[in-house]
Amino acid sequence: MAKADGFIPYNRETYEPDEMIRRTQAHFDWIDQRRSVRDFSDRPVPKEVIDNLIRSASTAPSGANKQPWTFCAVSNAEMKSKIRVAAEKEEFENYHGRMSDEWLNDLRDLGTDHHKPFLEIAPWLIIVFKRAYEMVEEEKKLNYYVTESVGLASGFLLSAIHRAGLVALTHTPSPMKFLTQLLDRPSNERPFLLIPVGYPADEVQVPDIDRKPLDEVAVYY
To answer: Best label site of 129, 148, 156, 161, fewest CB within 10 Å?
Structure first.
């Protein structure tokens, strides 16, 4: 095949069906151990680990390869404290008026409330921002499929965190405009997820829940 301008060859190893089945089963068994955790250790995590996690997340596909994301990694104790105060303020309003009774009932078995100590305890907070557009030489350039692209990158990030032997939580203290203000982010960025990252605490419990079986999430034609 002739080489097209702007393209480079791509080759990767492929596998026979039996090996694919073995690999996909092993991957499922591994990723099925991932859980959202709210009890973190304050044990430090090297910045280089966070660098690699963000680099892995940034390999996600994106609309027109615009890569419309920014990952803000926070380890500064003072900033984490400010984020906790602001997040708990919003969460208090959520749990005491904004959320419907049905929503609160669905959360009751998970044991959550407006108190978020993990925002100060976890050694790192990764705040994912989606970039609605770019400013290039004072001209607005649109990004495409921004939410979808950033959602994919966030999934890559969570998988990389699990691979590192760390734990995380996808926290969404909506509304999250306070993150834009505290981190002094530009107007083209919108907060998407607030993800504490670190080692689990010495004693951690997670809700006793099940994942939906295959026949409830897959339809074959």
So the answer is: 148
Cα dihedral across residues 153, 156, 157, 158: positive or negative: positive
101-157 residue pLDDT tens: 888 887 887 778 888 999 999 999 999 999 999 989 889 999 999 999 999 999 999
pTM: 0.93
CATH code of the domain occupying 36-202? 3.40.109.10
Helix (H/G/I), strand (E/B), else coil: 42: coil
Q: Report CA-CA distances (Å) from 17 to 13, 14, 20, 21, 25.
A: 13, 10, 5, 6, 12
Domain ranges (residues) in the chain: 36-202
Torsion from C-alpha of 44, 48, 54, 58, nearest 10 degrees: -170
DSSP 8-class letter at 98: I
Alpha-carbon gap, residue 72 to 46, rounded angstroms: 15
Cis peptide before 175 (omega within 30 of 0): yes
Report how far residue 107's alpha carbon sits from residue 101's, in angstroms, rounded to the nearest whole number.
10
What contacts 138, CB < 8 A, 6 or more positions away?
Answer: none
- Dihedral sign (CA 163, 59, 118, 42): positive
Structure tokens at 97: 């008026």
